[in-house]
Write the structure tokens for this entry.
Amino acid sequence: MKLKPDYLTQEIDDVQFLVPVGAGSFNGLIRNNKTAAFIVNCLKRDTTKEQIVDAMCEKYDAPRAEIAADVEEILETLRSIRALEE
């Protein structure tokens, strides 16, 4: 899975925004926290949920189950706005 090319990211003052640029059904901006920004950055290339969880486990000191739940929550949000190619 990966982020659709209809969505771009923009960094402003260390805050990542996800911006739809295509003719999709979502109109607005998404302001990502650091966790969501990490996940979105992983999705800029083809990856899997497990690969994202692995990368987050290497970077953050948190239980794997908690990280996996956070990843799934962000992925569901991205699915709801049709931002993922799966």
Observations:
- The chain has a mean pLDDT of 94.
- Residues 64-80 form the longest helix (17 residues).
